[in-house]
Amino acid sequence: MSDSATPAAPGFDPRWFFQLRKQGGGGHGGRLGLGYRGHGADWCELDLPYAADLIGDPDSGVLASGPILATMDMAASVSVWLKAGGFRNHATLDLRIDYLRPARVGQTVIGRGECYRLTRSIAFVRGQAHDGDPADPIAHVAGTFMAVEGYW
Amino acid sequence: MSIPYAELLGLSVEPGEVAPTLVMPFADAVLGRPGFLHGGAIGGLLEMAAVAALHQALESEGGGKVKPINLTLDYMRGGRDKPTRARGTVTRLGKRVANVEAVAWQDEPDRPIAAARMNYLIVR
User: Fold this and answer.
1) pTM for the whole thing?
2) Among partner residues B38, B44, B70, which is closest to A27 by beta-carbon distance?
């Protein structure tokens, strides 16, 4: 038996994932300016910096709800890959979002997604978004993802 | 459209008698995994279609501002490399609350790629 340290399980590194994406086309997440903030074994936090081209109400300058939805979809998706231990091809089945209050103008939105249950083909997720104070959330989400080839 | 986020999605409007149809071209700005639309972009399109339908319905009553309360989204098919259309239907227009449904499709309207139900608060 070798006593050399075995490399950690490949798993999924969201920091690397988002860095790599910035160098490529970027897609929708890149266009929104979505960035990595932190992660754990079954959760991921992303941030959505305030930007003029994400405004939904030009009179007030409040962000559209779409970019917040996209942030939560992405944070939840990454949380599933973390819990599954690696990237899997999967698709959002459904997503429910409650808009608790408008985001403050000029503030970065922070979205945290958590995979609280993983079955062979379905992942159950929940999450919250806030703009500085996690105790004063702006949105709450619940949803499911499905992996066609299974999560394990 | 003069809404920055609608411009980001590349939306154009096809007027309709009851509600307009919004068209979102396939572009890198709305791309998720390679070759497929991002779920967030589809959701954003559905929300814009719902709001557009609601504004049109409110026009005959003197207009009003709308605030999203919540949204329930079902994704049925992956969005592919082609334009996506979406249209909202106001199922109930109350004094304070409106219930709106919206569907998004690519080839045939009766084969949606996603559908949403939304509640809005109306400030008249």
Assistant:
1) 0.93
2) B38
